[in-house]
């Protein structure tokens, strides 16, 4: 590249873009780690975006009607941090950049949404940002339909690299965006031909332009180092009635000795090469120094949206109060006042009628009362609507002709669904839930982990949660998936036993502000075990005594979900033989672990043998069987220690010994 | 559809295809569950494939040079079972079909490779079969390059549905196939416009034809109910020098009242509608009855390949003996004779030189000696070759001009890599291993679970296995991933402490015949802890005493991987205070659990407090801290109970208290 030609053609642009490149080089050198090449390659595109297109106000990075900027290629975090510093975001003084990748800094190795207001989403695991962006854009459409264009009217811009586009989840994302004509979604592809292992051609020969077109996107090609070209492409993209991909031809690590090589992807810390690159840029300022005129120009960009924001605030304030309150309540993730009473009334009715129901059907019944009072929910399923029981009568279907619809047919895209739900939650104003089979937690895993890491209260509705699904066989029968979800920090895993516990689990899940939930639900019918109505939400304690021992307590049976009623039957057998048996229902291990020791010991006192019962693997159970006890007792576990099989459900429970008789025998074997 | 016209145009074809439809209806009705519509829609395509193109011999379904037939749309399992019965596969008498989806039957709800020789792979989780097929086709290329066209020369045929193509992994698969010009891979897309939730248009508007073209595939459109059209397409596909996708326009549940509806996807059991469908087909035979002439015609198809197979056997027998032996050894998953001595010699050398190395580097050193003696290995990485240390000097890179290459640049496609490795292992003759960051286990999860379920010894090389990776931060720092892998049945999870244990772990992993392995490796350097050479493979016992207590044993420290040397340091501190401390290295919990009780108690006797140490979550540890003990003792765990952070590695270990001092303090707190 002839840097001199670039500089002289657009000197003002050049100095602004070069500030990003210089800060990147300096921060990576200071940290002695990081990724220099991507910010250096995409600095021109980002500069034009921020200067001419992105609607934002650096003074209020959380302004609800801002355009969203998603850095899907999260390893290029210095691009984002440089921009936030340059435009004057108060959370990004130069000290933060000097502390790049150090303990406690906002400038983490990859952008973390929970560390700074100006970071929209956590990226780094490739493909996640572009998949989040579909949820961002859908949320914008839904809220625009609801509040009108004067209140909600913004774009979602994404920078994605070759790595993002190679990940399968990107296909799920772009086909969703194409199907729903998310015209306010604009992806800028950093087309630099380089991945870590070498040139892209080493592992890929995809025609990305034709690929996006096949997904019904508008595609524009642009020279990623020509500001006029980039500007024209962005203008055209904003006018399109389809989602737009701008293929930005760029040079990774522009101007550095490592330009156009895979080495350029990583940390460029060689002092001589850095000096040479800065000289080639015509950049004479010292490390972390930005010439005053350049900084002033960037700060003016940071204030570009201030008037627009104030005008928006006036429009917002002129909305009817109830509308404003609902808008803010949803944004703040506050529960509607009616929720608690609604759930209580539902529980009362259900404990009286005591239906035998699959808990997935209990979940649907709960949603039928919950969705009307909690209008920020948006439901969906990955092509299993009838099986996941996620659709209720009032939602309406989100579509090109019904942007106010609150139900999304995600198609066979578990991963794309989960990542888009993350995007919706991050956008704000929406509380998403989505369903698939529990076993396909596997497909959604990368995004489910990010829900937890990002501290967003997405709800995963995972039905068909054990061998109880029967004939579909071991590919569809989860055995390790409760353990997987429980192993993940900051995740609530609910396995309710009946309709009452299901309603209580939902109440907790939809009132979370910073924790995602997995609700594990049965395919098969189970009886109501909570036949006595209680106003208190018992699931909130994580575990509680469902039926106490008569006579001397010799046995404690601890069970979850569809195995609770088996434990109750086993208790009857044992009591009939004079063996005092307590049944503890444990719908949420994480909440039980959070209770004080006194409560935990009241529920699980010493002096009795314990049997854990769950149609899944034992991993995660030993803490309740052996842990926290004043004196040693014996314990056993009734569950699965292998994959399941294809056969009717009742036969499978027999085959694997998960029966009332098996439980009673396990308990007696310990006495 | 005018069934009459179809029937009269090709009466012989029609009766053969209708036999599939009738058997499907009968089996689903008998099971009262299953998926009827797909086999009914694709019966014509499958009939033409088996009659005119597929190279197979029903008498020997494992003939190594057979064409592979992959039913990616695994819910349509009755298509496969019907075909296997009709062609005369001895494992599929009519009784098996009558037992569809029943306990112990080969005819599981979804096809399970381990239940029948004629089932190439386990499908059901959508997208997996088409992604496996890439590995099948690569394995064929590699073995053809090695053994010549006379010994290895076959096609891989795949039937995939809309669901398969919506899953992201399908994009990873088809772009890999396109990049590598896998011309002997032929995908037949069941283009029926229907998914479970309704018409495909509800959730997708992708132009699949342009999408495959953008991935450099040859695409042919065919009428999926016109045998001549299908035949011509398959002929053209076989001649193409690109992978080919045949878009087969079909009607789901052809001829049934539910034709062309999402209801048709499921179990069509209504007796009257079944009778009407059969009448429309002109099918008068009773349930599970096949007219003799139709069965004879199918059995002739089943014998079509017999001569070809015999000719192949003659060619095979005329190969040099050593070549035959190598071929069969690899196919049977037997280890080469030299392996054991090679690993021993390497261990001796390493225990003497006692290097401080990242275990990922130890892994590379091991592979440098292992790959030359074990020529069936094929390595690779998902665009992290230099970080995963998976490439050794002798492998050569698999490419269009080097089909004998044994290293694959998988690109940023963890899921596609894992699924393709499954395909390679299932094909036979190849022992695949592949690397990514431990944290991105998440992306590969659906295929990793299937390695375990399918009982195939794929090796996952997972580096950067803790907060020890440092600055890249929590998106890249696994904390729950060891627990996730350990929760999965039939999976060996190794976390070696140094070069010696790494070599031992590899030796075990590459001698498995029916169990996949996860080898968890550090980014950061760790000292050699096994400085005394032992011929025995100590990792084989799962855990062992690395250093025993001096004086009265008061403390047992149990650690894995990079925390073992911290435990050794803590032991020194404790011993210096007169506290007798044993260190147990536990590189593989699964293997330790398989040891007899006597050995386990010898390693973990009662009477001492225990501290478990691992830079991951506690889940899975309590069994070793509390379980199996003669008398109650106290225990603690030093590890992670939250996500990590972005900072230098040493600071992170300090911050989270995973230090020798922290371990010693935890132990002392229990005394």
From TrEMBL, chains A, B:
GO terms for molecular function: transketolase activity. The gene is tkt. This is Transketolase. Keywords: Calcium, Magnesium, Metal-binding, Thiamine pyrophosphate, Transferase. InterPro entries: THDP-binding, Transketo_C/PFOR_II, Transketolase-like_C_2, Transketolase-like_Pyr-bd, Transketolase_bac-like, Transketolase_BS, Transketolase_fam, Transketolase_N. It comes from the Bacteria. Residues 357-528 form the Transketolase-like pyrimidine-binding domain. Coiled coil: none annotated. Its EC number is 2.2.1.1. Belongs to the transketolase family. It comes from Sulfitobacter sediminis. Pfam families: Transket_pyr, Transketolase_C_1, Transketolase_N. It is an enzyme of class 2 (transferase). It catalyses: D-sedoheptulose 7-phosphate + D-glyceraldehyde 3-phosphate = aldehydo-D-ribose 5-phosphate + D-xylulose 5-phosphate. The keyword Metal-binding applies. The keyword Nucleotide-binding does not apply. Homodimer. Its cofactor is thiamine diphosphate; Mg(2+).
